[in-house]
């Protein structure tokens, strides 16, 4: 079930741009390693205790991501953007005032994670509804926004925390809140979009499953397992890449942030070319290639003792994202 368009002549590229910016903001967790040391000092915790924040972040992102799909079907994506933007922005902004692990788990783990889950999937799905003729291409560009987000935050966040300490989280949270609210009003869904981008009222056949029916399909469990395996490498190192560079190569936090930037650039390129590789090589060969590169990158990071080898390993380590294309390809 989708909601009707509020304006017949709305340009679908406005919706795409809004979704791009929202996904750009939601990708903040990929630069988490930049904040690991300032957060550890602020809460007087161990590295593993601070890293657990990211685990909570991903958990609540997943839980609220499932709920957001149900809410979107009933109330539309626009309201979710306002609620999610508020919770997400407050989660990051209030982190400036944390002084204990429970508060850190509350702000970044629960609030920022929940805000991410509320916005990410509805933004992506709403934009794809406007481009039924090129869902794969559009999803590739939107998922690329998830790489550009941490690319920017890695450097900006490192500089802010270096100059202002924990108060650097305040402008970060405000920026996320303002951006999400500024474009959230554009997140309307069409009843149907033809190849020219004009909203129509024609009825199309739906192959949607109910949640109960979905859980009974073997494909759902196969895709769930594939997503879990594919994301393991990425999630495992999101909170560790900057500390690895600082410990193994004695880099400063700001210099170590460059490693995060290099990795996000590789992630960005990988998301853009995955669809093309899948068309040329097939899904199985493409996934195998990405898994091999991931293993090379992970192995290299564990033994890297110079900046060039660390950069090479970071570039090879590209979390497999081909699974996402199985859902979004026409």
Beta strand count: 0
Flag low-confidence runs.
1-9, 192-206, 319-330
SSE class: mainly alpha
The CA-CA distance between the termini, in Å, is: 19 Å
> Can you summarize the main beta sheet?
none
Using only CA atoms, what is the Rg? 20 Å
> Order of SSEs, N→C?
HHHHHHHHHHHHHH
Broad shape: globular
The DSSP helix count reads 14
- Beta-strand share of residues: under 5%
**Which percent range fits the helix content?**
over 70%
Average pLDDT figure: 77
Index terms:
single chain, 330 residues, mainly alpha, 0% strand, disordered N terminus
Descriptive notes:
The protein is mainly alpha-helical and 330 residues long. 75% of the residues lie in helices and 0% in strands. Helix 1 (12-26) packs antiparallel against helix 5 (101-129) and helix 10 (241-249) packs across helix 11 (253-281).
What is the structure about, briefly put?
The chain has 330 residues and is an all-alpha fold. It contains 14 helices and no strands. The model is unreliable at 1-9, 192-206 and 319-330 (pLDDT under 50).
Q: Helices, strands, pairings?
A:
Blueprint: H1 12-26, H2 36-43, H3 47-75, H4 77-93, H5 101-129, H6 135-164, H7 169-184, H8 211-215, H9 218-238, H10 241-249, H11 253-281, H12 283-303, H13 307-316, H14 322-328
């Amino acid at each position: 079930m989708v909601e009707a368009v509020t304006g017949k002549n709305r340009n679908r590229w406005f919706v795409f741009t809004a979704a791009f910016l929202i996904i750009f903001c939601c990708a903040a967790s990929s630069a988490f390693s930049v904040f690991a040391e300032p957060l550890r000092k602020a809460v007087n915790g161990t590295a593993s205790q601070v890293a657990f924040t990211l685990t909570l972040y991903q958990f609540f992102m997943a839980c609220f991501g499932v709920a957001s799909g149900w809410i979107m079907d009933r109330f539309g994506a626009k309201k979710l953007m306002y609620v999610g933007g508020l919770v997400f922005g407050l989660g990051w902004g209030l982190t400036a005032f944390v002084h204990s692990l429970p508060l850190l788990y509350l702000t970044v783990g629960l609030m920022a994670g929940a805000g991410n889950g509320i916005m990410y999937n509805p933004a992506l799905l709403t934009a794809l509804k406007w481009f039924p003729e090129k869902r794969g291409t559009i999803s590739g560009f939107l998922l690329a926004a998830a790489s550009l987000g941490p690319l920017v935050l890695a450097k900006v966040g490192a500089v802010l925390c270096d100059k202002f300490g924990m108060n650097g989280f305040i402008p970060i949270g405000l920026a996320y809140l303002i951006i999400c609210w500024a474009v959230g009003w554009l997140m309307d869904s069409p009843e149907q979009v033809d190849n020219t981008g004009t909203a129509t009222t024609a009825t199309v056949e739906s192959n949607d499953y109910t949640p109960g029916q979905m859980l009974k399909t073997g494909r759902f469990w196969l895709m769930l397992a594939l997503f879990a395996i594919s994301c393991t490498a990425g999630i495992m190192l999101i909170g560790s890449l900057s500390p690895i560079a600082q410990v193994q190569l004695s880099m400063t936090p700001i210099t170590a942030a460059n490693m995060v930037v290099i990795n996000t650039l590789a992630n960005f390129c990988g998301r853009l070319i995955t669809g093309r590789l899948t068309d040329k090589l097939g899904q199985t060969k493409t996934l195998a290639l990405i898994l091999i590169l991931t293993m090379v990158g992970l192995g290299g990071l564990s033994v890297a003792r110079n900046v060039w080898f660390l950069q090479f390993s970071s570039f090879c380590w590209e979390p497999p994202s081909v699974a996402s294309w199985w859902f979004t390809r026409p």
